[in-house]
Design goal:
The protein is an alpha/beta fold and 124 residues long. It contains two helices and eight strands. The protein has a four-stranded mixed beta sheet with strand order 1-4-3-2, covered by helices on one side. Strands 5-8-7-6 form a four-stranded mixed beta sheet, covered by helices on one side. The model has no long low-confidence stretch (mean pLDDT 94).
Length: 124
């Protein structure tokens, strides 16, 4: 059995990104350690503690801000949206779709995120 554990998010400055994801989005630092000269592993997880993100600076093929469509799911998008706005996040208004509700935002580097609340189908 496999599960997704970490998604790399390319950033220009790990300290700035860490402060944003911790203080604004609500992630926690799971692991942070030096990997070598000027290279640091920085793994953060959302409050749910499931799959997290690695704030990376070393992939030439992943320039800062190039990740788009990253998704965070919540069971209460109105509450999550309100909390993010209170923390100073610029986020779109909540929009309706056939599959659920969503709002979008960007990190300081321009990586694009979608906050979602998915309609669940009733079991048959």
């Amino acid at each position: 059995m496999m599960q997704l554990s970490i998604v790399s998010v390319p950033v220009s400055n790990q300290d700035v990104a860490k402060a944003f994801y911790r203080d604004v989005v609500g992630f926690k630092v799971h692991r942070e350690e030096e990997m070598g000269p000027a290279t640091r592993w920085l793994h953060m997880v959302p409050p749910s503690g499931y799959a997290g993100i690695a704030l990376v600076t070393w992939f030439e093929s992943m320039p800062a801000g190039s990740a788009q469509g990253l998704m965070l799911e919540t069971i209460d998008i109105e509450l999550a949206h309100e909390r993010l706005v209170q923390r100073g996040l610029e986020i779109t208004d909540i929009q309706e779709a056939k599959w659920g509700r969503f709002a979008t935002f960007f990190d300081p580097d321009g990586n694009g995120w979608v906050l979602t609340q998915v309609h669940r189908l009733e079991p048959r």
